[in-house]
Write a structure and sequence with these properties.
heterotrimer; A: about 300 residues; alpha+beta; Uridine Diphospho-n-acetylenolpyruvylglucosamine Reductase, domain 2; Uridine Diphospho-n-acetylenolpyruvylglucosamine Reductase, domain 3; Enolase-like, domain 1; 3 domains; 5-stranded antiparallel beta sheet; 4-stranded antiparallel beta sheet; 12 helices; C: about 800 residues; Aldehyde Oxidoreductase, domain 3; Aldehyde Oxidoreductase, domain 4; 7-stranded mixed beta sheet; 21 helices; about 25% strand; globular; disordered N terminus; binds flavin-adenine dinucleotide; binds FE2/S2 (inorganic) cluster
Chain lengths: ~300, ~170, ~800
């Protein structure tokens, strides 16, 4: 489990990094190395050049204004987990971060790496899909914005061009006023060290949390490890939006998720089982999000 | 201190200078050399153990750049200009550090292959949270696997270490 | 009079009795002497060994499960500027032998020759400067294959449609049916017969340290020196020297004092040891090192374990009396019946667990498939047996409408029947099983079935409303200890002749221990075995300190290599506590006798006129004394050394006539029966099948505890492995024979979040068969954890009529069972 040879570059500015990615053939960005190193050790990836972006302090930001929340690509899982700003504005992020491995992995792993990897089992891709986040991509030639929905194309395959870096994401805040919103991230894991069998990001906004039976104005559900991409399930959301939360609505949302997923079989999870998890966890996530919204 | 990387004439290398356990080390290394292998075979720091190279077991945990990290998931070149601390730095003049003492007293090691990783993770935890609850200990050690002890005595050792350090 | 003197007097009065409480080190929870070097990084594991000029070896492993090798092109590899050596199966076949297997008629090449038998099997080796460039060169070896149908399903493999080893002609090279009592009669007479099918997945030890070997050939002496983290290096060293084609004394195998866990798995280290030795020989003595990486270890590391399909039938009367059992199973051994293979027989040592049942049929098929071969793992085949047996009992209890606790109590061996001879002729030494089960139940009821407890009826009810079903079962399990050696080759014997066999033909292996007094008066003892975390050095220093009346810190404990040690069984099968205490007692007596003789000689008096006590020999008629250091000095010029001694402790079963039948018939002989009464509390999420272990209560009894701290540690660790086996660990294969668990993301070792709080209580029912009353206890937890957890799940899921039918009882499998019940 030793990687093939490569050349190593450690630029100190985003501009230099982008320059290197533009100039060097077969170059790969290196962030937390919590995924890439495994691929390289097994020689499933053997880039000729690694561009280490760990010195790009300009990608380590968490900013919130009234309109949106912006998180830089180099922000570590540990920082997301502990960010007061995110806990207040988008609590599903810290919750999702805290469910990645243990603290040692979280010290190194980054938001950008998790998104860049394009693993449909990843925690953040699923959150990004649920919250309709935009990914900011930059190259020597300029920058562009891609919605999460368009960014993830298939397993380990994204819309990112080889010379591009993800610099961060922005999430609109309008849909999630903290006082009327509840969010959650639930993961089914067999052990701390492994990836989830399935996980779900859920968010709910109600019209009036004080109301006896508040109406769900906006609901979001996305599932991880349930399809080739992080899977937003609009059909499930539609089943409960526009009315107060009901058993029947939840059941219908669950059924929709059961049908919507297209999971790969794994050693300890056959297709039917994953569908059942999708159904059950969709219901649980929406219930939890709802309960938090009205709490 | 300077380490030579001999016999690999045809392989391109890069010079790095790393502060390891407080001492500056300069070496010529292949860029692909893992930090774990650099510490083990070039510097003979044997408390760094390699159990998986998959980021799971935590036996290779060291302090890197101020936080704990799995050294099998870092390249030595990434440590250029940075600081690395291993268990070797804990015990001065052969005296056990309070955390090491606690592991001994609570029988928190059997084969010992995982132990260095647990010591480093414990040290990191207690630096931040000198009086952790059981659940916090479980969470803090979730990146380390022990196949021998069933963790019970490790938890006791962390608590004992916390008491010892508080008393210091 | 000083305290020490008082003690000596007491000793004189009660000759041979153990020392009074508080005086002996044995029995105390002393901290381990092994720890300091490990904690500070001075321990040297095999991965740390790197002699001057050492090169590294890597292996080209096939990705095919079953294929003929058409061609291996090594030219590109050999052309690599840093390549020192490439060898293929054909190359080694020209000079060396195949590795012996567990069945005499079969063997295995260390590098595949002509065909490959499992994904991960090595087909070539490469040697170069370091592992990085080795892997570059490995990638340059080009192997071409002609694919064959993989044999994956062990049940279907028995049909022999595709035969893996054509020379053997069948995929079932070994099977046996044993009948004890009159099983047919019992089944015919019983009111009810309950039948169930249970599977046990491929689970293994997966120690944190992978395999490693460093070999150096000495061209002048024509001998080898191999450092390796092998288990049983003084017993199974033949797997190495025979393969190399040398005599035992030409191949010196040394195991470092620190091995990063084995649990049985590292018995199968010979492939790596042979290949590094061959490579070193081909390179005229350049040392060659190999360290297995984790992917290699998981997919083709020669260390998978039991993989069984059981059909169990229970003959039972309406009043709950079990009349008979019928166990039928197949065990998927993978590609080769590699040594050891007697794990299919070990369950005979605990055939009916703690139950008094006379009539039993036991039948197995050892099946070969295109998977990694099995080796030993803690429990050694007993764990699946107890699991299948207990599930069948749970099923029977349900069918009869009896409470499973009462059902077990009805059938337990009454304490008055101890020692108890099983139908399969092994003997349980001691234990009150009904009381133990009652005790664990009381403990749990007091602590948990009450307000604030996990099993508070109101809480249980409200959790059920949320779809979470809690349950606890009380079960008791026997851990057979201190295996004999002679029976272990039953499958290589003519089984038809065994009923006629003479007791005199039984060849047991003693435990060897030796010691010498060093110049400074410390005593250095030598173990003829290896350790991998069990604390043997601590244990022996305690035992010998007591024997010699010195401090444990006056005793150093070292290890012998395979040449210096006699052929020995060693650390496996829960032997060490008992065998070492017997050996230490014998060695201590012998040394004391020699010390006195040496002193008497020196003073020119008879031995009756001198007394050894606590490190000093005293002359009764004068003031002179001799310390151990003095004795060492006196001993230097003598022809016959009297400060060195060795002792071979005979296996305790050989001294007990009652074991004669089992010994002569080569039935598993395990003269100690440790036991555990368990009560894990589980909660099952019915909608998702997820199981949460809330707490694990266990009452454990391994006779007299030599070091309670070590015993407790073994229990914790064994239980954690039992938890992993019960719920998450598994080597899966897809239907093409591709391994699905090649990373630690897939083969899931229990992490901190999987292991709950353990509440252990220890009782001590001494063994009447052993010197100290100790019983073997290296395997508990792994033996009893899975069955216990499965029973608790059965209890939780009783409303859905689910009995766990597959281990590990993963969430998806429990969901499958619940779904089948319409849930
Ligand atoms: C034991 C363990 C358990 C884990 N469990 C989980 C889990 O449960 N859920 C989960 O989501 N993840 C899990 N992970 C993965 C973890 O989240 C990784 O940190 C993450 O997937 C990759 O982030 P990284 O910063 O380490 O990226 P790297 O490994 O450095 O890179 C990953 C990929 O992204 C690319 N990349 C990195 N940064 C950028 C960028 N800014 N722009 C473009 N491309 C970039 C790299 O080139 C590479 O292809 C686990 C990892 C480990 C070791
Ligand atoms: S060796 Fe680094 S995590 Fe296992
Ligand atoms: S002590 Fe052996 S792995 Fe922890």
């Amino acid at each position: 489990m030793k990687p093939a040879p490569f050349e190593y570059h450690r630029p100190s500015s985003l501009a230099d990094a982008l320059e290197l990615l533009a100039d060097l053939p077969d170059a790969e960005p290196l962030a937390g190395n919590q995924s890439l190193s495994i691929l390289m050790s097994n020689r499933l990836a053997s880039p000729d050049h690694l561009v280490d972006i760990n010195d790009l302090d300009e990608l380590s930001y968490v900013e919130a204004d009234n309109g949106s929340v912006a998180v830089g690509a180099l922000v570590r899982h540990r920082e997301i987990e502990r960010s007061g700003t995110l806990a207040q504005a988008l609590p599903v992020f810290p919750e999702a971060a805290g469910k990645i491995a243990g603290p040692v992995v979280r010290n190194r792993g980054t938001l950008g790496g998790s998104l860049g990897e394009g693993d449909p089992a990843g925690n953040y891709p699923c959150v990004a899909a649920a919250l309709e986040a935009d990914l900011e991509l930059a190259s020597a030639g300029g920058s562009r914005t891609v919605s999460a929905d368009e960014f993830f194309i298939a397993t380990m395959f994204t819309d990112r061009e080889e010379d591009e870096l993800i610099t961060g994401i922005t999430v609109p805040r309008d849909p999630f006023p903290p006082a009327r919103t509840g969010q959650t991230f639930l993961a089914v894991k067999e052990a701390a060290q492994t990836w989830p069998t399935l996980s779900v990001a859920g968010a709910v906004r109600v019209d009036d949390p004080e109301d006896e039976e508040p109406v769900l104005e906006d609901a979001r559900v996305a599932l991880a490890n349930a399809a080739e991409v992080p899977l937003r399930v609009p059909g499930a959301e539609g089943e409960i939006e526009g009315e107060p939360l009901s058993e029947a609505g939840l059941a219908a949302a669950g059924e929709t998720a059961y049908e919507a997923v297209n999971p790969e079989e794994e050693l300890h999870a056959d297709e039917t089982y994953k569908r059942e998890l999708a159904r059950e966890y969709t219901k649980r996530a929406l219930t939890t999000a709802h309960d938090r919204a009205v709490a | 201190m300077s380490v030579d990387d001999t016999g690999r004439s045809e392989r391109p290398t890069q010079e790095i200078t790393v502060t390891v356990n407080g001492e500056s080390v300069t070496a010529e290394v292949e860029p692909r050399l893992k930090l774990s292998d650099f510490l083990r075979s070039h510097l003979e720091l044997r408390t760094v153990r390699v159990g998986c190279e998959q980021g799971v077991c935590g036996a290779c945990t060291v302090e890197f750049d101020g936080t704990v990290a799995k050294s099998c998931m870092l390249y030595a070149v990434q440590a250029d200009g940075r600081e690395v601390t291993t268990v070797e730095a804990l015990s001065e003049d052969g005296n056990l550090h309070p955390i090491q003492e606690a592991f001994h007293e609570e029988h928190a090691l059997q084969c010992g292959f995982c132990t260095s990783g647990f010591l480093m993770a414990t040290r990191d935890l207690l630096a931040e949270n000198p009086d952790p609850e059981r659940e916090e200990i479980e969470g803090a050690l979730a990146d380390n696997i022990c196949r021998c002890t069933g963790y019970q005595n490790i938890y006791d050792a962390v608590e004992t270490a916390a008491d010892k350090l508080e008393g210091e | 009079m000083s305290e020490a003197d008082t003690r000596a007097e007491t000793d004189a009065e009660v000759e041979g009795e153990p020392e009074p409480e508080g005086q002996s080190f044995t029995g105390q929870g002393l901290n381990r002497v092994e720890d300091h070097r490990i904690l500070t990084g001075r321990a040297e594991y095999v991965h740390d060994i790197s002699p001057e000029g050492c090169l590294e070896m890597g292996l080209v492993r096939t990705t095919r499960a079953h294929a003929e090798i058409r061609d291996i092109d090594t030219s590109a590899a050999e052309a690599h500027p840093e390549c020192a050596l490439v060898l293929t199966g054909e190359d080694i076949a020209a000079e060396y032998n195949p590795m012996p297997c567990g069945l005499t008629e079969m063997s295995e090449w260390a590098l595949a020759k002509e065909k490959v038998h499992f994904a991960g099997e090595p087909v070539a080796l490469v040697v170069a400067e370091d592992r990085y460039v080795v892997e570059d060169i490995v990638d340059l070896v080009d192997v071409r294959y002609d694919g064959l149908d993989p044999v994956v399903d062990a049940v279907a493999a028995r049909e022999d449609e595709t035969v893996i080893h054509e020379d053997v002609g069948t995929n079932v090279p070994d099977s046996e049916e044993l009948r004890f009592g009159d099983p047919e009669g019992a089944f015919a007479a019983a009111d009810t017969v309950v039948e169930g099918e249970y599977s046990w997945g491929r689970i293994s030890g997966v120690p944190l340290e992978t395999g490693g070997a460093v070999a150096e050939y000495d061209p002048d002496a024509d001998t080898f020196h191999i450092d390796a983290n092998m288990q049983l290096h003084t017993l199974v060293d033949n797997t190495v020297f025979e393969t190399l084609g040398y005599d035992a004394e030409d191949v010196r195998i040394e195991v470092p004092p620190d091995v990063g866990g084995s649990f049985g798995t590292k018995i199968a280290m010979h492939r790596y040891m042979c290949l590094t030795a061959m490579a070193s020989q081909q390179l005229d003595g350049t040392p060659v090192k190999y360290v297995e990486d984790r992917v290699e270890n998981l997919q083709g590391g020669d260390m998978h374990s039991s993989d069984r399909e059981y059909t169990v039938r229970v003959a039972v009367d309406d009043d709950g009396t079990v009349r008979g059992f019928d166990f039928e199973f197949l065990d998927d051994f993978g590609a080769f019946p590699r040594y050891p293979i007697n794990q299919v027989l070990k369950p005979l040592a605990v055939l009916t667990n703690g139950y008094d049942v006379e009539h039993v049929r036991y039948s197995y098929d050892l099946v070969l498939t295109n998977k990694t071969s099995q080796t030993a793992y803690r429990g050694f085949g007993v764990d699946p047996h107890l699991y299948a047996l207990e599930m069948a009992l749970d099923e029977a209890a349900r069918e009869l409408g009896v409470d499973p606790y009462d059902f077990r109590q009805i059938n337990f061996i009454p304490p008055g029947s101890m020692p108890y001879t099983l139908p399969s002729k092994n003997i349980y030494d001691s234990g009150d099983y009904p009381a133990a089960l009652e005790r664990i139940r009381e403990t749990v009821e007091e602590a948990e079935v009450c307000e604030g407890g996990l099993l508070d009826p109101d809480v249980v009810e409200s959790r059920r409303e949320a779809g979470k079903y809690r349950g606890v079962a009380y079960t008791l399990h026997i851990e057979p200890g201190v295996s004999g050696a002679d029976w272990t080759n039953r499958q290589r014997s003519d089984r038809d002749d065994l009923s006629e066999r003479d007791r005199e033909d039984v060849a047991e292996l003693p435990e060897h221990l030796r010691a010498e007094v060093l110049e400074d008066g410390t005593v250095r003892a030598y173990l003829a075995t290896d350790s991998s975390g069990q604390g043997h050095q601590t244990l022996v220093s305690q035992l010998l300190a007591d024997e010699l009346g010195v401090l444990p810190s006056d005793i150093e404990v070292d290890y012998l290599d395979s040449v210096d040690a006699p052929t020995e069984y060693g650390s496996a099968a829960s032997r060490m506590a008992v065998m070492l205490s017997g050996a230490a007692a014998g060695l201590g007596d012998r040394m004391v006798e020699q010390f006195e003789r040496l002193a008497a000689d020196h003073w020119g008096v008879g031995t009756a006129a001198v007394t050894y006590r606590e490190g000093t020999v005293t002359r009764q008629d004068g003031p002179e004394t001799l310390s151990l250091a003095d004795l060492a000095a006196l001993d230097t010029d003598r022809e016959e050394s009297l400060t060195r001694a060795s002792y071979d402790y005979q296996h305790p079963a050989t001294e007990l006539e009652d074991f004669d039948e089992a010994l002569a018939r080569k039935l598993p002989v395990y003269p100690t029966a440790a036991f555990a009464a368990n009560a894990p509390i589980v909660e099952v999420d019915v909608a998702t099948g997820e199981v949460e272990l809330l707490k694990f209560y266990s009452l454990r009894d391994c006779g007299t505890q030599l070091n309670p701290v070590i015993v407790e540690g073994q229990s914790h660790g064994g239980l954690a492995q039992g938890i992993g086996a019960a719920l998450i660990e598994e080597f899966g294969y897809d239907d093409r024979g591709q391994p699905q668990s090649v990373t630690l993301f897939d083969y899931l070792l229990p992490s901190t979040t999987n292991v709950p709080e353990m509440v252990l209580e220890h009782s001590e029912t001494p063994s009447p068969f052993t010197v100290t009353g100790a019983k073997g206890t290296g395997e508990g937890g792994m033996i009893d954890g899975p069955a216990a957890i499965a029973s608790s799940i059965n209890r939780a899921l009783e409303p859905f009529d689910v009995v766990v039918d597959e281990i590990p009882a993963t969430a998806n499998r429990l969901r499958r069972q619940l779904r089948d019940q319409g849930e």
